[in-house]
Design a protein that fits this description.
Bound molecules: 1-O-alpha-D-glucopyranosyl-D-fructose, calcium ion
InterPro entries: GH, GH13_cat_dom, O16G_dom_2
Distance between the termini: 22 Å
Low-confidence stretches: none
Family: Belongs to the glycosyl hydrolase 13 family.
Number of strands: 20
Pfam families: Alpha-amylase
CATH topology of the largest domain: TIM Barrel
CATH class of the largest domain: Alpha Beta
Organism: Homoserinibacter gongjuensis
Protein name: Alpha-glucosidase
Amino acid sequence: PLREAWFKEAVVYQIYPRSFQDSNGDGIGDLRGILSRLDYLKALGVDAVWLSPIYDSPMDDMGYDIRDYRAVLAEFGTLDDFDALVAGLHERGMRLIMDLVVNHTSDEHEWFQQALADPDSPYRDYYFFREGEPDAAPNNWTSFFSGSAWRWFEEAGAWALHLFSSKQMDLNWENAALRTEIVEMVRWWRERGVDGFRLDVINYISKTPGLPPGNPLIGRLIGFTGMEHYFHGPRLHEHLKQLRAEAFDDPDCVAIGETPGIGPQMGKLLVGDDRGELDMIFNFEHLENPGRTRFDDYRYDLGYLKRYYTRWQAEYGDGYWMSLFFDNHDNPRFVSKVDPRPEHRVAVAKLLATVQFTLRGTPFLYQGQEVGAANQGFTMLDQLRDVESHNLAAELTASGVAPAEIFARVLAGTRDHTRVPMAWDATGGFTTGVPWIAGDGSHVEVNVALQEGDLDSVLEWHRALIALRRSSRALVYGETITERSSRRVWRYRRRAGAEEFLVALNLSDRVARLRAPGPGWMLERASGPGTGPLAPYEARVWRSSAG
Ligand code: TEU
Ligand code: CA
């Protein structure tokens, strides 16, 4: 039986605060800027906003390195601005989802500073400190941002663990007092009106006790050593159950786990209704073709996407709920991965939107996706701001890779493709000052103002499909029935009671034959000609006249 919930019916929009809207001309997006754009989001059909971190931070990893969990970064505004944003959202019938980063804190967090200064401090056990010698790291685990996962602190004569940047220190969830602090912090934000949380790398919080060495063979296979000791650790479910019971103790408070490496079976253990853990997860296997990584430059085969979602929709059935997303702040634009040729951009963007709004699950849009924003034509490393990109370039340089090849790899995968300013109009519209990171000028042709009211635009396609989804129980809660189709076509129905939709998608850049639907089907929307064979990347949606 399907449990209904607001977040299953919702369309969520992810905002990267630094790059969405600047209100005071300092070139940095801020909370007042977001507030000024709420009417735009409402008119698009957005039900909830997920804000990437706005907490006080030295910004080593753009806010995913938190210095103070109960303060807003000064560049973004104040707690009063935050309260105004919550009120502005709620007045418009929208909700707020905060990013919750509790696998690690900044090394500048007060807990870490006290732990560093005094080995007897109660905070020492909040982290993974290991006393030793500067030339022998405690184990062979590697960081996701290059090099060892251990940093030597001379003043403490000890190493500390960081799975991400050397300023993001992993928290020790074995410590009960730490867990209580996190529960209290979450409750503090909930009392300010927050409606839910996106939990950053939450499947990494439980590590195998003793932190044994990683298997080098697994490390070589997946590119990171040690991951088998924390991606689905021994106490993960126990910790999540505690969070649900003590921090998210309200079925309306949505908890979405960011869980790299979790497949459908483990996914079910995290999101099952009877489990008392999370409501949804983000996993990332659909973003790359098998055998590829984000830093490979290749054309994505959509046939894999069809197989992936067909499998997950069937595995999840009625008892589990999926997130549906393509873009976020950690990945290049998916539209560019599928087909980087400008003449196909609009068709691919509409095709992807159709998948997001007609499959079963909650769609998450990332800012700019609704206008079909593509990857940026960066030409040199200096234009990039992301610590991950710079660390990777340094690592490849040290291992003797040629500069041109280094840049090609970084360009394929850099997270800065999606971190450039939101394109509001032909002048940019993001700031009156100098933006903290510059785009490549494509905002002149791809922007909100140009597309608003243009019924052929990517933006209006999003608006129309969001409205269609909202009007239909079948498109939200209905079962997904995959139909037989040729390799290049993806065809499925969504059905609830007498209401039924049929979707046909051309996954290729060539015209594709289509078995015409029977007489009971009325064409609802088409991104191409709408009759005869499917145009390249065309998406068509029909409604059953019986319903
Ligand atoms: O991202 C973690 C994540 O999924 C990848 O960026 C990571 O490199 C992956 O596990 C490797 O396969 C989250 C945030 O979304 C990201 O912005 C942060 O940098 C990161 O956590 C650390 O907080
Ligand atoms: Ca600003």
